[in-house]
Write a structure and sequence with these properties.
Largest sheet: none
GO molecular function, one term: carbohydrate transmembrane transporter activity
Subcellular location: Membrane
Strand content: under 5%
Distance between the termini: 21 Å
Shape: globular
Low-confidence stretches: 156-194
Number of strands: 0
Structural class: mainly alpha
InterPro entries: EmrE-like (IPR037185), Sugar_transport (IPR010651), TMEM144 (IPR012435)
Membrane topology: Multi-pass membrane protein
Keywords: Membrane, Transmembrane, Transmembrane helix
Helix content: 55-70%
Radius of gyration: 21 Å
Number of helices: 13
Length: 368
């Protein structure tokens, strides 16, 4: 009877974990719909109010879960995420949206997955019953991110780019035809009359390399943002296993408010510095409510990710939650905004959905 009860509880926990993955993917894939048609300028003011929305979700969750203990160390996870988010506009300006998303998305997924698989950064090793199946599922999920990079982006007169990825806020101008960011449409900036790389080309190559390196760093930060609260959670679980009073909560959901407070306070500090450096920051009131709405979506997604990590482990939740929201965002783009049209984009999107479906199935089955 005890074994049967334990099996039933384990199955229920797995079901909840996968439902949380689904909720997280939907919310991450939808969280920028409220601001899709709004010009957020350089993104600083938008990001500030986005994090206010995130904190509101965390505060409601804290009330709903009984005012659990606040853990200052877990705020470090929020600082890590906010710092990675800070780099996104710079990455877009240096190496473009497609490459930037690909680099930080792959790095984010791999860091989170590897942290659980190999026990990095003090994380306990996560075990799965079918490791080879898990590896192949992760590889397919990464492959789908490469397919996203091949989708053609619509060109607009103002070259304003708006794009979204799970756990990321960005809105930066690529400046496709400016001297600072030359493009194939302006070939005079790319090579000298003698067929040798011009000064502009070498400068652009250095800018691209810098953006690429920063994108790698951002991906590492995004993939590590759960580690501080997970470290405390593991200590609590070890204490309970040894029959001791837990120093920290053994439950993943008891670190949400600390994590979200870290996000808000870090972003407020970064915004204050940006305001001191550039006093003419755009502070448009029309941004506030849509940004809060986006933050609420993001916060719900992150809360669900906390639960999925606890129920399924990093090696299952990270590949699913990092990989799938891009598909959902692309589908919203087709349905609501007429994006991703054309035979090439339609074919690629269909292939991405197929690859991601197989990847998610393999990763889920690998858990056992």
């Amino acid at each position: 009877q005890d074994v049967s009860g334990w099996s039933c509880a384990a199955m229920n926990d797995l079901a909840i974990g996968y439902l949380c993955c689904l909720l997280s993917c939907i919310c991450f894939g939808s969280n920028y719909i409220p601001v899709k048609r709004i010009d957020v300028r350089d993104g600083w003011f938008f990001t500030l109010w986005l994090t206010v929305g995130i904190f509101l979700v965390g505060f409601v969750q804290w009330l709903a879960f009984g005012l659990y203990k606040f853990e200052p160390f877990a705020m470090l996870g929020g600082l890590i995420w906010a710092t990675g988010n800070l780099f996104v506009p710079l990455i877009i300006q240096r190496c473009g949206l497609g490459v930037g998303q690909l680099v930080w998305g792959c790095t984010n997924m791999l860091i989170g997955w590897a942290t659980g698989t190999f026990g990095l950064f003090g994380k306990n090793v996560d075990t799965v019953s079918k490791p080879a199946m898990n590896y192949f599922g992760v590889a397919l999920s990464i492959f789908s991110l490469f397919l996203f990079a091949g989708m053609e982006q619509p060109k607009s007169e103002d070259t304003e780019v708006q794009a979204r990825e799970p756990g990321i806020s960005l809105n930066a101008s690529e400046g496709n035809a400016s001297p600072e960011n030359p493009s194939p449409e302006n070939p005079a900036l790319l090579e000298s009359p003698y067929g040798e790389p011009s000064t502009e080309t070498r400068t652009e190559a250095r800018r691209f390399f810098l953006g690429f390196v920063i994108a790698l760093l951002a991906g590492v930060l995004f993939g590590s943002n759960f580690d501080p609260p997970t470290y405390l959670q593991q200590q609590g679980q070890a204490d309970v296993a040894n029959g001791l009073p837990p120093r920290h909560s053994p439950h993943a959901m008891d670190y949400v408010i600390s994590h979200f407070t870290g996000i808000l306070l870090s972003t407020m500090c970064y915004f204050a510095v940006a305001l001191a450096v550039k006093r003419d920051q755009y502070l448009g009131r029309e941004i506030i409510l849509p940004a809060i709405g986006s933050g609420i979506f993001w916060g719900i997604a992150q809360v669900a990710w906390f639960k999925a990590n606890g129920a399924l482990s990093y090696v299952v939740s990270f590949p699913i939650i990092v990989g799938v929201p891009g598909v959902i965002a692309s589908l919203w783009g087709v349905v609501l905004f007429g994006e991703n049209r054309g035979k090439r984009n339609g074919t690629l999107l269909g292939l991405i959905i197929l690859v991601q479906s197989v990847a998610v199935l393999l990763i889920a089955l690998s858990k056992g």
